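Notes to self after the Tuesday call (sharing in case useful).
The group wants a holo model before anyone commits to mutagenesis around the pocket. I volunteered. Ligand is S-adenosylmethionine. Logging inputs and output together so the record is complete.
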Amino acid sequence: MAGTLYLVPTPIGNLGDISPRMADTLAQADFIAAEDTRVSLKLLNHLGLKKPMVSYYRHNTQAGGQAVLDRLLAGEDCALVTDAGTPAISDPGQELVARCAELGIGVVAIPGPCALVTALAVSGQPTDRFTFEGFLPMNKKNRKAHLDRLKGEERTMVFYEAPHKLSATLSDLKDAFGGQRPISVCRELSKLHEQVLRLTLEQAVEWYESNEPKGEFVLVVRGAEPVQEPEATLEDGLARVLVLRQGGASLKDAVKQAARELDLSKNELYDLALGH
Ligand code: SAM
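Result:
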């Protein structure tokens, strides 16, 4: 019988975020597939664990992935870890999970640290609907096209960014969404210098003109204001009733349908329509 692939999140800064289940899963796995074995070795040392490790990183998902799959198919359990946070979220893992799903190999995701969720929760921006954008494309033309597509996005948008590209990205966001759009710049989450700046895009650009960006960042940008559809009036309803009547509908059916389509009161529309 095939083994199981466990996706094991690791702290995004604070070792106190290691959960008992996370540690147990690492302890019980037959081997660990790690994005960077040197980084994960430190974590294993911290937990007092010794485990066989293999590399699974962005540029070896084909060969590294096949080696992991072969061992899973032979019955071994694998714990997949990345340098920080949840595997498969802007990190290696998604192809491996997809291949496991195709081959009928069980996958278990252990809940745990993820910069996206932590930033969204602390941002103060609407969290009921959001879109995770990860890292923006580096190529200028692709980046602009991507941001153009997001101009009307009404959901909160979450971006990852590296410190040396932060200022340029804030300027690009300001150009795309306007200077008054609210943003929460979430820095060094769960670490000593954790900071959440809740600003407009214009203020954020200005802030980082005089403060060098240091550490890791998640940018949580408020979505566009919804475009309000004008509410239909009884006169709109009457016009619709007349069209439906011309198409052969009875007065009662036409009123019922028009009221439903335009979200109007059936009785009021009926009274108005009777006079025409
Ligand atoms: N898989 C990870 C996760 O679950 O969040 C994300 C990995 S991605 C390669 C790394 C990016 O995540 C960083 O560039 C930064 O945008 C964000 N990040 C990771 N740790 C962070 C932290 N402690 N504070 C703020 N952002 C962080």
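Two things stood out.
Residues 234-274 form one domain.
The first helix runs from residue 20 to 28.
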